[in-house]
Automatic annotation (TrEMBL):
It comes from the Bacteria. L-aspartate binds at residues 172, 218, 322, 365. Residues 139-431 form the Aminoacyl-transfer RNA synthetases class-II family profile domain. Keywords: Aminoacyl-tRNA synthetase, ATP-binding, Cytoplasm, Ligase, Nucleotide-binding, Protein biosynthesis. The record marks 29 as: Important for tRNA non-discrimination. This is Aspartate--tRNA(Asp/Asn) ligase. Pfam families: tRNA-synt_2, tRNA_anti-codon. Residues 196-199 are annotated as: Aspartate.
Length: 463
């Protein structure tokens, strides 16, 4: 069988073709049966006349049945064209119809935008929810976004490298998800909050331009723009200064967004110091768009630079504001090494803001062991603890680590903004619900007592 995609039918007027897809809508007009057939490329109107050998089979059809039809593509008369459909100038006269599968009546409507349907129902039946055209568009837009980023970066000589998901606890300011080890009862892997340490090890290994579309795992409270796992364009470069990283990312964003038909408010992206942003907007994330920009889907990017390295903790100590692996500004390296004037130490950290969201963040890194060590000292780590947790990084840096820096860009948020959606759940195929359960499979769930035993674990029911 030579299958034709629905989107190709306007070029096939007068031809005999075979289409496959789902019954989107069915309408009976007197004796004629009209069907809208949907495949991944679009929707077309099918007509089944009482004379057609397929008539009887067509009478039994219900929405979401899966069918294959053969017939002739006809140009519709001028007055019967449907401007809303890309195939609106044609229809198909069905001569042959095969039912490939029947379908129960869907438990949720699929011919609406779906935004007013209860989230639990949408996610329980996500495989149906995803059939709606809005989500089909969103998921494809996300795929295009990633494809365009990849092709830009390959054009700049980057290497795409995967790093492990089974790893060690990482300090990125969030709680870790941990995985118990069967072979070493009582020991745990941690899922990476980001590939931060691995990408720095890759710089040490001589891969001077690295990127990866990486999954990051963080056990945080959920929000419309935050889930337990998120996807990040993770990138790192050697022998660079802040200006080099910003230039690559800015060029990539402009190429990708404009390639996808978006308008960017201001180029080059405006820059604010953290202090300026706080004074002007009261926050380090802000929206530079006017009401008119918002209506027109304009993207307003801005860089925020010069963050304080540390902030005070409730118990009077210090913690990092963004990333413990960052390099202080050159004029503050001395203070860091001496552990003095901590509040005044600024880091070479940069955040990218888009339409009120943090779209990405990164920094120039500490590439010398003594600088990294000094950061953990400020945070009150003992020598033993530093060695235990970060000995591998200190060791790596002692073998000729190049100066380096990079960034992590949130793919879910960028896709959400590009799609004009309000929640990242609208651009993730199988997102978690706002109550922290997974789509369709409804994890987390209990495991068997045998599994627990094998892992050397015992669950204590909380009182
Ligand atoms: N590791 C950082 C993050 O995940 C990004 C970076 O600094 O490259 O937020």
């Amino acid at each position: 069988m030579q299958r034709t995609y629905i989107s190709e039918t306007p070029q096939k007027i007068g031809e005999q073709v075979t289409l496959s897809g789902w019954v989107h809508i069915r309408r009976d007009h007197g004796k004629l049966i009209f069907l809208d057939l949907r495949d991944q490329s679009g929707v077309i109107q099918l007509v089944v006349t009482p004379k057609s050998p397929a008539y009887e089979a067509a009478q039994a059809l219900r929405p979401e049945w899966v069918i294959q039809v053969s017939g002739t593509v006809k140009e519709r008369p001028e007055s019967m064209r449907n401007e809303k459909l890309e195939t609106g100038n044609v229809e198909m006269n069905v001569e042959e119809l095969v039912v490939l599968n029947q379908a129960e009546t869907p438990p949720l409507p699929l011919d609406t935008e779906g935004l007013d349907i209860d989230e639990e129902v949408r996610l329980k039946y996500r495989y149906l929810d995803l059939r709606r055209p809005r989500l089909q568009r969103n998921i494809r837009l996300r795929s295009e976004l990633v494809q365009r980023m990849r092709s830009f970066l390959f054009g700049q000589n980057f290497t795409e490298i995967e790093t492990p998901y089974f790893s060690k606890t990482t300090p990125e300011g969030s709680r870790d998800f941990v995985v118990p080890s069967r072979m070493y009862p009582g020991q745990f892997f941690a899922l990476p909050q980001s590939p931060q340490q691995y990408k720095q090890l890759l710089m040490t290994a001589g891969f001077e331009k690295y990127f990866q579309i990486a999954r990051c795992f963080r056990d945080e409270d959920l929000r419309a723009d935050r889930a337990f796992e998120h996807t990040q364009l993770d990138l790192e470069m050697s022998f660079v200064e802040q200006a080099d990283v910003l230039a690559v990312i800015e060029a990539m964003i402009i190429t990708v967004a404009e390639g996808m038909g978006k308008k960017i408010k201001e180029k080059p992206f405006p820059r604010f110091t953290y202090q300026e942003a706080m004074e002007k907007f009261g926050a380090d994330k802000f929206d530079l768009r006017t009401e008119e920009d918002k209506q027109n889907g304009v993207l307003a990017f801005a860089w925020v630079l010069d963050f304080p390295f540390f902030e005070k903790t409730d118990d009077g100590g210090y913690t990092f504001t963004h990333n413990p692996f960052s390099m202080p500004k050159p004029e503050h390296v001395e203070s860091l090494l001496k552990g003095e004037s901590i509040d005044g130490i600024m880091t070479q950290q940069y955040d990218l803001v888009c339409n009120g969201f943090e779209a990405g963040g990164g920094s120039i890194r500490a590439h010398k062991p003594e600088i990294l060590k000094a950061v953990f000292k400020v945070m009150g780590y003992t020598d033993e603890k530093i060695e235990e947790d970060f000995g591998h990084m200190l060791s790596a840096f002692s073998y000729g680590a190049p100066p380096h820096g990079g960034i992590g860009m949130g793919i879910d948020r960028l896709a959400m903004i590009l799609a004009g959606e309000q929640s990242t759940r609208e651009v993730i195929a199988f997102p978690q619900s706002s109550s922290g359960h997974t789509s369709v499979m409804d994890a987390p769930s209990e495991i068997t007592s045998d599994q627990l035993k094998e892992l050397g674990l015992q669950v204590k029911k909380s009182e």
